[in-house]
Amino acid sequence: MNIIISNSSGQPIYEQIVNQIKNMIISGELKEGDSLPSMRLLAKELRISVITTKRAYEELEREGFIVSITGKGSFVAAKNVELIKEQQLREIEEYLQKVVEKSIACGISLDELIEMLTIFYKGE
Q1: Helix-, strand-, coil-residue percentages of the chain, each rounded to 5
Q2: Least CB-packed of 56, 85, 113, 123 within 10 Å?
Q3: CATH class held by domain 11-76
Q4: pLDDT (tens digit, 9 = 90+) per residue, 16-70?
Q5: What residues are paired with 76 via a beta bridge?
């Protein structure tokens, strides 16, 4: 499992872990029943506190992405991938709505907004 932590990101480290593991599950890189590294091993690999990995795993478990079995570890839970994608789409729509409102307030045209979105999407 390849998790990259960015110190320059304004996002807390546990959220970066949560989001990256969620993305791996949604993309199919991690499948139902796959085991996750232990909290201690992940903390050691990422050179972060075990408390941080514990918080990330607890968040993933609370959201139903993983299940933890005492003495055995944490595993990707059986979950409807379509439902997860629908939740992601809803979040994207909320962000886009805010972007549109801000763009209109700043006088940015739809064409300019599309151009900006294209640049960000392509990572240019």
Answers
A1: 60, 5, 30
A2: 123
A3: mainly alpha
A4: 999 999 989 888 899 889 999 999 999 999 999 999 999 999 999 998 889 999 8
A5: 66
